[in-house]
Amino acid sequence: MEFRITTILDADQLVDKAFLRASKKEKSGRNRIERTKNTVTVKLNTISKVLESTMKRYEKEFPSFESLPPFYQEVIDIMLDTDRLKKSLGALNWARRRIKRLLMETAREVAGSTDTDKMERLRKKAYARTVSFLKQISEDLEFLQEARTKLNSLPDIRTDIPTAVVAGYPNVGKSLLVSKISSGKPKVAIYPFTTQEVGIGHFMVEGLKCQLIDTPGLLDRPADERNDIERQAVSAIRTLAEIIIFVYDPSGTCGYPLEAQEALADEIKDTFNHLEIMEVENKSDLMVGDSDRLKVSAITGDNLDTLKQRLFGKIKRLYREKAEEMF
Ligand SMILES: Nc1nc2c(ncn2[C@@H]2O[C@H](COP(=O)(O)OP(=O)(O)OP(=O)(O)O)[C@@H](O)[C@H]2O)c(=O)[nH]1
Ligand SMILES: [Mg+2]
Fold first, then answer.
1. In contact, 87 and 140? CB cutoff 8 Å
2. Comparing C-alpha atoms, which of 295, 79, 308, 303 is closest to residue 201?
3. Tens-digit pLDDT profile for residues 171-230
4. Is the distance from CB of 8 to CB of 95 less than 8 angstroms?
5. Rounded distance, CA 179 to CA 176, Å?
6. Over the stretch 253-307, which tens digit does the pLDDT of each residue have?
7. Mutate to test the pocket of ligand 1, among 166, 172, 304 (most ligand atoms within 8 A of CB)
8. Superfamily for domain range 163-325
9. Which residue lies with its CA nearest to atom 6 of ligand 1?
10. Which CATH class is domain 11-152?
11. What are the start and end residues of each CATH 1.20.120.1190 domain in the chain?
């Protein structure tokens, strides 16, 4: 899913937007009293309409946190203070209602008056109070704008299709494998929690779309080297993946001895103990280890068909299990 929240104006910009629109409104009338009344009324209504529609749109565009897939809930929790987000949305709602009521009441008072000076005074007072309401939520508006930028930058990851996540030490060939298994060119996106680009690939199994995710900087080293944010990111991945593909490089050209890689694999199996783990040895063109793990070469393409078949087989079985659960 993708967030496309429009820019959140700050308090000054909202004031400018609404008041500029209102300043251009003039109304005629049979006499000065009527002219003033009509003009003040149309200005108040214009401000009310502009602010009401703009602020309501902000409230609508932010997703309700509880309705998001668990993966996005966890990821958003890493990036921003979700309590603050709720509070700011609440403040926005409060200011919108207060302004609406204020302008409506003022318009009613103007309608009942025959004194043009009083109408102008009422208009000015309503303007000042509108500005004051908006100023009161200026920090909330700024927070929402920051939150909006962060949410919009989230990678577009599907949470509704079977997903395999690739793990293994750096340089073992994870990215190359992802691009070899994917049907198109994997998309790259920036995760909020790593500085590196995530590869997101797709492939089809009997007409069903599946997702393959490469997570550099996350599942490629021992857990005790992960910081809090990375630990939370791993927990988010737990809600996303059905299968983990663990990639070994027995040739050691990645720079890590096989024993270290096996220790990492054990950790990953522990962390994702509810998931299917597929173990693959890559770089079979350089060296074939004596384990009974599947040996492939991302470079020459050797055995990649077998890897795909096994992966597809697991996914099909998962689908069947899910379908049976529903009956
Ligand atoms: N000989 C050989 N080299 C390979 C094979 N697969 C990948 N490589 C090479 O290994 C290096 C690392 O490959 P990547 O796909 O970037 O590895 P990675 O695991 O994604 O690395 P990080 O993103 O740094 O974690 C590249 O130079 C690849 O060309 C293979 O099957 N055989
Ligand atoms: Mg990579």
1. yes
2. 308
3. 999 999 999 999 988 787 766 666 677 889 999 888 888 999 998 878 888 989 988 888
4. no
5. 5
6. 999 999 999 999 999 999 999 999 999 999 999 988 889 999 999 999 999 999 9
7. 172
8. P-loop containing nucleotide triphosphate hydrolases (3.40.50.300)
9. 173
10. mainly alpha
11. 11-152
